[in-house]
Amino acid sequence: MKLKFLLTTYLHFGKYCDCFFYRKIGVLSIFFYQWFFKKTLNRQCQFKITCSKFIKEHLTKTKKFEELFNIINIRILDCSKPLNISFSLKSGIIATGGSLKKYREDELSKKTINNFKKKIGTK
Question: What is the pTM of this model?
Answer without folding.
Answer: 0.80
